[in-house]
Amino acid sequence: MHNGDKMKYEDYLKSRMKTKSYRLVFMLLVGMLCAGCYDDPRRSFNDQEIANAWADMTLYITKHTPSNSPTFASRCFGYIGVTMYESVVHGYSDYVSLAGQLNGLDKLPLPQQKVYYNWIISLNAAQAEILRSIYIQTSDENKQKIDSMETLFVDQFRGNQLDPQIIDRSIQFGKSVAVAIFEWSKTDGGHRGYLQNFDKALVPPASPGSWEPPLYGQSFSHFPLHPHWGKNRPFVKLNAELPTPKIVSYNKESSSDYYSQFKRVYEKSQSLTQ
Question: Which domains occur in the chain, in start order?
Answer without folding.
Answer: 46-241 (1.10.606.20)
